[in-house]
């Protein structure tokens, strides 16, 4: 099994500086910079960049920018999904975002996991490759259809957020969230289910008369 395969498999220690991975990250960072330097109206140019950076996306995906991805190619995003300013994804592991997902500003999705003990975490010289490296592993992130991830949310590796959830601003999501939940906090906890009582039709007072 190659180091790259270990990285994408998840939950396996791998060398993040092996087999061209630094060059892949550098390419993604360059493409992010090019995207971030475009204007909102440069749709064709933006799509050309995303075709190379993040090809696994559906129709009508809109990334406001700036964006910051480590690989880009390990992110999939469904039709009609949107991300606001400063969308940051450490996609060493796979990141699967469903359809019609709204992502607020300053959201971070981080699949890379470093060891807790500094003896395991610190950089070292790898005599096999002749390079300084460190060890890490990944865990995938899944955000299912019709979710709203509010501003400044951090989603950690290994988390699945069920369909139709709302994650409150500033939350740190460390565990799975069941479908149709309103969840907030650090660590993020389910407050209650989202029901028909939350539909706009149930709140006529919100409409101007």
Structural description of this entry:
There is one protein chain. With 209 residues, this protein is of the alpha/beta class. The protein has a single domain, classed as UDP N-Acetylglucosamine Acyltransferase, domain 1 (3 Solenoid). The protein contains four helices and 20 strands. The protein has helices at 3-9, 21-36, 43-53, 118-121; strands at 62-63, 67-69, 75-77, 82-83, 87-90, 95-97, 102-103, 108-110, 112-113, 124-126, 131-133, 137-138, 141-143, 148-149, 154-156, 160-161, 166-167, 172-173, 181-184, 189-193. It has a seven-stranded mixed β-sheet with strand order 1-4-7-14-17-19-20, with no helix packed on it. A five-stranded parallel β-sheet has the order 2-5-8-15-18. Strands 3-6-13-16 form a four-stranded parallel β-sheet, with no helix packed on it. The longest helix is centred in the N-terminal third of the chain and has 16 residues, at 21-36. The model has no long low-confidence stretch (mean pLDDT 95).
Task: Give the topology, please.
Elements (H helix, E strand, L loop, with lengths): L2 H7 L11 H16 L6 H11 L8 E2 L3 E3 L5 E3 L4 E2 L3 E4 L4 E3 L4 E2 L4 E3 L1 E2 L4 H4 L2 E3 L4 E3 L3 E2 L2 E3 L4 E2 L4 E3 L3 E2 L4 E2 L4 E2 L7 E4 L4 E5 L16
Parallel strand pairs: 1-4, 2-5, 3-6, 4-7, 5-8, 6-13, 7-14, 8-15, 13-16, 14-17, 15-18, 17-19
Antiparallel strand pairs: 9-12, 10-11, 19-20
Helix pairs in contact: 2-3
């Amino acid at each position: 099994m190659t180091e790259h395969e270990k990285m994408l498999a998840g939950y396996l220690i791998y060398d993040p500086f092996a087999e061209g991975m630094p060059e892949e990250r550098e390419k993604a960072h360059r493409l992010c910079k090019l995207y971030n330097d475009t204007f909102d109206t440069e749709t064709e140019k933006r799509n050309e960049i995303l075709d190379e950076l993040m090809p696994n996306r559906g129709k009508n995906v809109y990334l406001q920018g700036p964006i910051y991805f480590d690989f880009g190619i390990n992110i999939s995003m469904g039709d009609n999904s949107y991300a606001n300013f400063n969308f940051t994804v450490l996609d060493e592991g796979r990141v699967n975002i469903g359809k019609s997902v709204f992502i607020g500003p300053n959201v971070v999705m981080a699949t890379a996991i470093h060891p807790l003990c500094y003896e395991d975490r610190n950089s070292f010289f790898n005599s096999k490759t002749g390079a300084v490296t460190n060890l890490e592993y990944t865990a995938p992130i899944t955000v299912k259809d019709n979710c709203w991830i509010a501003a400044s949310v951090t989603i950690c590796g290994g988390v699945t957020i069920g369909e139709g959830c709302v994650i409150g601003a500033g939350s740190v999501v460390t565990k799975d969230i069941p479908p149709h939940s309103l969840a907030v906090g650090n660590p993020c906890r389910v407050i209650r289910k989202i029901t028909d009582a939350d539909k706009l039709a149930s709140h006529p007072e919100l409409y101007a008369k």
